[in-house]
Amino acid sequence: MKARGKQHGQELGALEARIGHAFHNRALLDEALTHGSALDVVAKGRRSYNRLEFLGDRVLGLIVSDRLFREHAGEDEGELAPRLNALVNKRACARAARAAGLGAAIVMSPSEDSSGGRDKDAILGDVCESVIGALYLDGGLEAARAFVVRFWGDAFDAHESAVRDAKTVLQEWAAAHKRGLSYVLVEQTGPEHAPRFVIEAQVGGYAPTRGEGASKRQAQRAAAEAFLKERGVHD
Per CATH, the architecture of 2-162 is what? Predict the structure, then answer.
């Protein structure tokens, strides 16, 4: 039993090194790594990661929302929400958990372990969120943010490079059909701090379509979307 305790302590130390945070209260990390199946085979009074998962899910959402809000200042809620959903879900959390090597440190029952529990997306995703919750409680928002920056970095980059908005689709469509494409400002209204723009997407040989938005970029995208919808063009 003592050998197992020493081994687990070593696993926690190795995990702290991988995630770049030495816990002041290591019991938080221990709880974050305890699967419900283990409660019958470990010390009484120990809790599973469920509560920390609940907290970590909200902390993760805040961190990612804040980053998207700052990096995409010209986008409205309807454009930010799909980005958030692509980055805050069980699959994304499971990928981050694998990158951080969380699976090796999870405490679970022998039967769950033998059934491949350490590599199940559902468990890894939950543990990732619980570790974020533990980091938040132990080191504050910046400790949790550092984890997300480290283990979501590639996901942010991959998602960003995969985003193809309506302007990109229309530009490629127009080039393929050898049609000129331009965006023309039709109207600008509202005060300086809250302007509204109306812009036309003009494609050679077709009737122009209009879009409106709080920025020229939004209005251009809306105009492109209107053209693509009218012509039945899909990405």
Answer: Orthogonal Bundle (1.10)
Q: 40: how many CB neighbours lie within 10 A of its CB? A: 8
* Strand partners of residue 91: none
Q: How far apart are CA 19 and CA 132, in angstroms?
A: 11
Which has the closest alpha carbon to 89: 21, 158, 155? 155
Marked catalytic residue, from 31, 126, 129, 200: 129
113 is catalytic: no
pLDDT in tens, 58-114: 999 999 999 999 988 877 776 788 788 889 988 899 999 999 999 999 999 899 999
Q: Are strands 181-189 and 209-213 parallel, antiparallel or unpaired?
A: unpaired
List the catalytic residue out of 57, 75, 138, 225: 57
Query: CATH 1.10.1520.10: which residues of the chain?
Result: 2-162
129 belongs to the catalytic site: yes
- CATH code of 166-231, in short, is 3.30.160.20
Contact 144, 135 (CB under 8 A): yes
Say which residues have a Cβ less than 8 Å from residue 68's Cβ, sequence separation at least 6: 80, 83, 84, 87
- Tell me how crowded residue 89 is: count the other CB atoms within 10 A of its CB: 11
pTM check: above 0.70: no
Spatial CA neighbour of 30 closest among 40, 18, 13, 20:
13
